[in-house]
Structures are given as C-alpha cells and as structure tokens.
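Can't attach files on this board, so I'm pasting raw text. These are the components:
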Amino acid sequence: MSAVDAAALTAWVREFARLVHEQRDALTQLDAAIGDADHGANLDRGMTAAVAALEAQPADDPAAVLKTVATTLIKTVGGASGPLYGTFFLRAAGALDGDDGRALAAAVRAGYDGVVARGKAERGDKTMLDALGPATDALDEALAAGKPLGEALGAAAQAAAAGRDATEPLVARKGRASYLGERSAGHVDPGAASTTLLVEAAATALAGRG
Amino acid sequence: MSAVDAAALTAWVREFARLVHEQRDALTQLDAAIGDADHGANLDRGMTAAVAALEAQPADDPAAVLKTVATTLIKTVGGASGPLYGTFFLRAAGALDGDDGRALAAAVRAGYDGVVARGKAERGDKTMLDALGPATDALDEALAAGKPLGEALGAAAQAAAAGRDATEPLVARKGRASYLGERSAGHVDPGAASTTLLVEAAATALAGRG
Amino acid sequence: MKKLINDPADVVPEALRGLAAAHPELRVDHENRVVFRGDAPRQGKVGLVSGGGSGHEPMHAGFVGVGMLDAACAGEVFTSPVPDQMAAATRGVDGGAGVLHIVKNYTGDVMNFEMAAELVQAESDTEVVSVVTDDDVAVQDSLYTAGRRGVGVTVLVEKLAGAAAEEGRPLAAVADIAKRVNVNGRSMGMALTSCTVPAAGRPTFDLPDDEMEIGIGIHGEPGRRRVPLAPAREVAEMLVEPVLSDLDMTGGDGVIAFVNGMGGTPLLELYLMYAEVVAVLEKAGVGVARNLVGSYMTSLDMAGCSVTLLKADDELLRLWDAPVRTPSLRWGA
Amino acid sequence: MKKLINDPADVVPEALRGLAAAHPELRVDHENRVVFRGDAPRQGKVGLVSGGGSGHEPMHAGFVGVGMLDAACAGEVFTSPVPDQMAAATRGVDGGAGVLHIVKNYTGDVMNFEMAAELVQAESDTEVVSVVTDDDVAVQDSLYTAGRRGVGVTVLVEKLAGAAAEEGRPLAAVADIAKRVNVNGRSMGMALTSCTVPAAGRPTFDLPDDEMEIGIGIHGEPGRRRVPLAPAREVAEMLVEPVLSDLDMTGGDGVIAFVNGMGGTPLLELYLMYAEVVAVLEKAGVGVARNLVGSYMTSLDMAGCSVTLLKADDELLRLWDAPVRTPSLRWGA
Ligand SMILES: Nc1ncnc2c1ncn2[C@@H]1O[C@H](COP(=O)(O)OP(=O)(O)O)[C@@H](O)[C@H]1O
Ligand SMILES: Nc1ncnc2c1ncn2[C@@H]1O[C@H](COP(=O)(O)OP(=O)(O)O)[C@@H](O)[C@H]1O
Ligand SMILES: [Mg+2]
Ligand SMILES: [Mg+2]
Ligand SMILES: [Mg+2]
Ligand SMILES: [Mg+2]
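---
Top answer:
Structure tokens for the assembled complex are below.
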C-alpha cells in the first residue's frame, strides 16, 4: 500500500481546497446567519493560496507540505479561522513522524490539540472543535481497532458530519456566534461545516494509503 | 348678489387649503417624478399656516385677507413655490380695488404678472404659469363677455386644468424639472397642478358672488 | 421608511437641537433656524451667509465657524429656507463690512435669498452681495432655462471665500473669490439608490438593482440618464469626462479634487472612487494639488457620489490651506 | 449589490490606494496593507498600533496621525488582519519606547494580534503590550464565552491613549489609560438595515421594513433581538438604558458621549439622535462633558447607530482636548 507521503498530503490539501471553493457560498451563508458572512471567502482565499504555494514550491517532505499550508493560511486568512486552521496544520506538521496511518492520526491529534490551545474553546461551544474533536477520536479508535486508513478516515468523516449537524441546536459560547446568545441556536456552525470538508477531503484523497 | 368681500376671499383660501391638503400626496408624487418630492408638503404647510393666521386674526378688509395669506406663505413655504405663491397673493392684495368680479379679475391678473416678474418664466416653460396664464385670460374674457363671476371662474378653472394637462408633453425650461432635460417630458408639472386647485377653489367658493 | 427620526414634520428643528447640544461653540437661533458662529457678528469682517434645504448635512450648518461661514439657514428638507430666516442670518452676521450670500442656483433658493436681501436693505444700509453657484455639468447651460444647479463647488466656495473673509478682505474681494471659484469649478454626480424624503415617506424614484442614475443633483431628483450598473473605474470616467470636456483643467497649478459621498455611501467606497478619479485625471494630464474626500454635501440617505474639480491657482491654494474650524471641516492652526 | 467598487476581491487594496493619494502625510505599505504616520517611527514615543477587518472606515486608518495611532492594519472586509501585517506595523512604529496594540475583542483579532506579538518578540526586544476593548453591553459578559465585543470605545481608546503617547508617557502609563477608558466605557448599537459584504454579494440578514435590530455589533451580525421600528426617542432609550444599568455614570466629571453612525446613516439623523440621547441622559442625571457625533466606526453601508458613554475624569478630559491631527479626527492646535 502506498505511503502517506508528500504527494498524498498534497492531494488532500487540493481536495480540501476544491471542496471549500465549491462550498464557498454555502459556508458564507452559514456565517451570515450567526456570524459576519465571510467564512467561505476567508477559507477559499487561504486554500487557493495554499494550493498555489504548493505548486510554486512542491515539497518532498510530508511535514513540509503541512507547514507550507500552515504558514500560507496564517498569512492570508485572518479572522478566527486563519490562526485556528493555521495552528492545526502547523502543529500537525510538527508532530508528523512517519508516513503511515498512525503517523497521520498522531499529527491530526496534535493539530486538534493546537486548535484547543489557540482558541481556548471546548467541545459543545459550537465551534469547529465539535466536528474536529469527534473526527480525531474516531480516527484513533478505528486505527486502534485495526481498520485500514481509508476506512478509518471514512469513520472520521462520518463523525465530523455528525458533530457538525449536532452544532445546530447549540447556543454558541465561543467565536462570533456567541454574541447572539440564544439566537445562535438553530444554525449549523460554519467552522464545523468547513472542518467536516477537511476530514471528508482526507477520506477521499487518502483512501488506499497508509 | 353678495360681494367678493373678506368672508368670500377667506372661503376661497380655506377651500384651496382643503384641496391642497387632500391632494398633498398626489402633488408630492408629481414632484417626485420630475422634482424633489416636496411640493405637496410645502404648499400644505403654507396653506395650513395661512388658514390658521386668518383664524387667529380674521381680516375685515378683502385686501388684508390676501396680504395675510401672502406673508404667511412667504414665511412658511420656502422653495420655489413659497415666493411664487407669496408674490401672487401679495400683488393681488395690492391691486385689489373693489369687491366685484372685475376687481377680483384685476387682482388675479396683477398676481399673475407678479409671478412672471418674480420667476422670469414664460408660458410653455412647464411651470404654474401654464395653468395660471390661461385661467387669468379666461377669467378676463368671460367677464368681458358679460358672464357672471361664478361662470367666469368655472371657465377659468377649465382653462387652468387644460393648461395643466398640456404641461405633460413639455420639456421643462424653468424650475427644478428643467434639470432633467428631455426626461421631464411625459409628466404633469406639480405647480400647474396646484395652481389648478387654486382656481378650482375660487370657482367653488366664489360661485354666486360678485 | 427607515429613519432615526420622530415625527417627519419635526426632523429639522430636532436635528438643530442636537447640533446645538453637540457644538456649544455655535449659537443656534431655533426660532429662525439659523446656526451662527458663537462670536458673530465679528466687527469689521465680511459676514458669510449660506443656507438651503435641509438633508444635505453637513452642508451648510457643519461649515459654520472660523474660516468658513458666519451663519447657515436650515430650510425644511430639500426646501429653500424662507426670506425671514435669511434676513435674520444676515442681520446677525453684519459686522459693518457687508454680507455675502452664497446661494446655490435653484429657483427657490435664488428667489428667497433675493427677497431676504430686499428685506434687509429696506430697513438698513447693510451691503449685501450674492454669489450664485452653478457648477453641475449634468445640466445643460442655457439662457432659456433655470441654468445649472449649484452642487459640490458650493463647499469649496464656502471654504475659500470664508478664508478670504477671515483675512479681513473687503466684501468685493471676498465676492470675487467666490465667483472665481464658481467659474473655475465643475461637478457631476451619480446615484446608486434614491433617497427618501421624510415627509414623502417613500423613495423619490425607483432604481432597479442593476441600474444607476448619472447626472443627479442633491435633492433626490432623477438624473439625466439611467445606465446599467458599472464598476467604479467606469463610474469615475462617466463623472470626470464631462467635467473636463466642459472646462479645460490641464496645466496651471492643478486642481482641487473633491470626491463627495451622497449620504449613504461608505467612506471605504469613497476612497476607492478617489483612486479611480485620480487615475482618470492622470491619463488626462490633470494634476491634483489638493483633495477632499468624504460626505460633505449629501442627499439624505442616497448612495452615490459626485466629483467636483476646481482649477486652482496660487491664491486659491493658499486660501484652501488657511485654517478652518467648523464642526465638519477642520484643519490648520 | 450596489457599491462603488470594481472586483469585490480588490476592495481593500484599491481603497488603500485612494487613501494614500488623498493623504500624502501618511505612508501606506501596500504590500502589508499597513497605514503609517508619515514620520513613524518617532524616537522615544510609544507606538500605537491598531487594526482589524476593513469595512469600518474611518476606523482605523482614518485615525492615524498626530495624537492618535502610529499605524493601522487593514484586513479583508470584516476579517481580522493577519499576524504578518501586525508585525510589520509593530516594527514600523517601534521608536524604542515600546508598542501598544489596541485590539477589539473578537476571537480572530485577539489571536492574530497575539501571534504577531509572538513573531515580533521572537526576533527583537521590542516591548509589546496589548489592550483589548470589550465595551458592548449587548453581549452578556461571561467567563465561559468569548466575552463582549469591542465597539465604540475603541475610538475613544485610540484618541485618549494616543494623546498620552504624544505627551511622551511610557508604555505602562499609556496602556493604563487605554485600560481605564475601556473599563469606564460602554456601548450599545442598533441597525435599521443590514449591510452587504462585497464578497458575499447580498445583505447579511433580511430585515422587514417595519423592524429593526437592537444589540448589533459592527460586522453586520444580527443583533440580540428584533423589535418593531420605533421613533428616535425610544431608540435612544433602548440604547442608553442598558449602558447606564451596566455602569453607573452619574456624578463625577460627566461622560464623553459618542453617537456613532453605522455607515449608511445621514448626519441629519445622527444629530437628531444625539438630541434624544442627551435628553435621556439628563433624565438619568448624567452630565455630558464632551461629545462626538458622526460616522467613525461603521459597518459598511448599514443604516443605524450606536451610543458609547465613557465616564470621564479630569485627566481623560484633558487628553480628549489634546490636539489630534488625523484624516478623520482633527482638532486643537
Ligand atoms: N475560540 C474558538 N475555537 C475554535 N473555533 C473557533 C473559535 N472561535 C471561532 N471559531 C470557529 O471559527 C469559525 C468562524 O470563522 P471565520 O468566519 O472565518 O472567522 P470570523 O469569526 O473572525 O469571521 C466559527 O464558525 C467557529 O467554528
Ligand atoms: N421660475 C418659475 N416660474 C414659475 N413657476 C415656477 C418657476 N420655477 C418653479 N416653478 C413652479 O414651482 C413648482 C415647484 O414647487 P416646489 O416643489 O414647492 O419648489 P421646489 O422646486 O423648490 O422644490 C414647479 O412645479 C413649477 O410649477
Ligand atoms: Mg466570519
Ligand atoms: Mg419641489
Ligand atoms: Mg424643494
Ligand atoms: Mg470575520
């Protein structure tokens, strides 16, 4: 089975960028309802730049791929999602040690921990953590149960989507939606929706790897 | 037959005020199309004040009635119609000499001349003159032909209405509508419409006088 | 109609109360609806009076102060003030050196100011001179019509004649500056949306989502023509080109360029428009000596902008740089 | 979407070009989208840096100049700038006396400024202190949430801390002023209409003709509640009352009262609102020592307003009166 190498991670990044671009307006509409109507534009700008950066300087080293994405996002996105997604990729790059599924899962876990540390939110606060958290757990569990990476990422994507959907009834406690108080309930969190795309992109691009 | 006395002129003023108030929105809509959407509000404010002034200090002298209306309009209307209607009543007051139909017609003629002098417009420029001019002529002609005042004012009102309608195709050369150039064609002039109400009010209120 | 008002009939006096509270350095005559410099009349200084319909704020009351107007009369919304107001203003700023009336060329404004001058001169020997601004190239200039509207150049006249008066120049000289500014200035405006006159309660005109009006004035009048919505770059051309073809602005000391918002236009867009205007001017070989970007002469809540260009010279630039201290225009020592 | 723009993606850099052209006294770093005082860095003076998403003009770039900010970073519309911008600004204003970051309390702004400070401090010994503003009483204050938004008080912090820095006070003292202003200031805002983010192309929320939003921020977010349209008099109560019940403003030296327009609100209405706000304050026994009325912290083309009250004291009033010379706030010698 082929490794989770630089090419595989680049494919993941490309697939995520493609999904974000495709869902740009949908993400912005989610953000319009309980935020400031820029999440789709923000991530699309950042991921377009990340793909361009990888094209301009293709990286051989898997960690370098993630690092390029991280610095590009931090330099181009801004807002809340820039530092959060940037930190996710930066910590993942730092933790990546190996080219198999377990190495990837450890990197994702480190990225997740980075988002928690940077954003100081908890699960249930109606943020991207509500999708990323369950996805990270599901990935670890599936691999621990001996599932192949493709299947494990599929489970992670399902967990992310379930987490995303579960944000709908929540009253936000972190991020811009928290300003709305009770009025934030009844809407899906835009960051949870984009994070689900991140995990879905991994399931698509990395199936058959690891 | 009863005279064109202070009471009669006061009745004319009241009837004009009533019509203006009733047609306020219609006048403003005409002004919205080719002006600045204030003609109805302007005249309504002024005529309401004029009626109030006559109530506060009823005048015995017919010229005094017209003078009160004149100064009130000048003090409260502003815009183009304030000085023009004000001048109409001021000159009419100055020229009023007697309490019969001919005296009234002479006063109206003097008022008309005053509007021409103040506004420097000509008939055909798409202004109130296009209603007031024909009305003044018709009044003189009918009286010269020996018609009673009521009938003569009826003819004047018809002439005013015809003149008002005839402003529709004109391209404005004076007043705010002139700024629109060719686009001013296809709309009735608001001042011609309000002046028609002035003459119609006279026909209603002064019938049986003079 | 969505406005921060109470009864539409009370908008003007209530806003004047707010202005008075916000600017204790001004004196507001609420009965006559005249806003005075706190120290008016200034002995020996030519008094500058302007005024017009309300709804154009900060013009004119926002320009009352040192180096600009001595008094401003506030009419009803979009309706010229009445002669009594202008006469009260004129009396109140008469410091013995005469009074200049700065009048925008609208039939109503011209007639009411004329009657006010007659009133004042009938009772005193105050010298009153009127300067009428008529800079709007959207309107064809003709002897047989009301002529052109007075728009953006009025702000520049008030600033520059105000500086001349502050220097202590005599009435004739101050009036000459005002006329020179008017003769050398031209404007053109456009609207993205109509405005809503409070007393009317609905937009003056309907403008589809994909169209704009070119050649509007400042009273929510429809413009000369309606065209499809265009990028700022093209809007800048549509506004600057007719100004430049009406008056050659190349050479000399450059122009004072004034990009004005109509009341509902964010400053972000005005700066963006200013960049486009500068680009068009550069291509046309017109240099910019000074500029003013902001919403200074508005049309209630209308979204849109106007461009005013004034052919400058040494003296006008010096007067432009002179100190001004008013609620809405302020610079210098 | 009706805006004076070209490609929605280019709004910010294009507006910065216009700002640079209009204000040659400023220096604009177009690559980093940072607006500097022309004379930055000033040796020995604490450098003041702020910034945030664009769409709030004149905040922040319009407040760069003598007596206020040394640099402002412009993010995308309603999106916090990135750490690189803030780091470039910080380096560019460092005159050896340290740099104060004035940060509005939004998750994005806070995190990006944090990362910028880390970047700068990793490579130099520039001292950086951050003050976060969070004055919006529409948001419930809680340890378990993102807390309150930073809104109108930010303008006052920039003015007052700017004056302290201009006096040559050390970083700790300047930061103390900033914190004191934030602690003693409260705001509340409302919207008559939504705004339209250029990249989104349509209004952020729909608001029926007979309703308004109470408790909005400055990013076109919906407010805390939607209520029927009400006269200005009642709107003033709805805004002032929650401010006063959050912080007692009676007694002492009175307040600095700031009535702010959201971008699409005519000045006429803001003055009218100010009169109503003063009336409510009078009834509550709160004196007004100074005021500011105008559109200083906007939300693109949103129609609406906010009220900010700052409990003043001798020192704050003195700093308020100190000269300021920026594109959009200017007074004193
Ligand atoms: N403290 C936080 N921790 C984790 N995620 C957060 C936090 N604050 C905000 N988010 C996420 O960021 C998303 C909003 O991103 P975006 O719209 O790009 O930024 P902004 O809110 O600055 O406009 C939210 O939907 C939420 O998922
Ligand atoms: N020079 C003029 N001579 C005669 N009537 C005029 C002249 N200018 C304008 N009018 C009349 O005034 C009317 C407009 O009045 P109004 O709307 O109250 O004033 P404004 O144009 O100042 O808003 C026009 O419809 C026209 O009939
Ligand atoms: Mg957002
Ligand atoms: Mg009119
Ligand atoms: Mg009018
Ligand atoms: Mg944002």
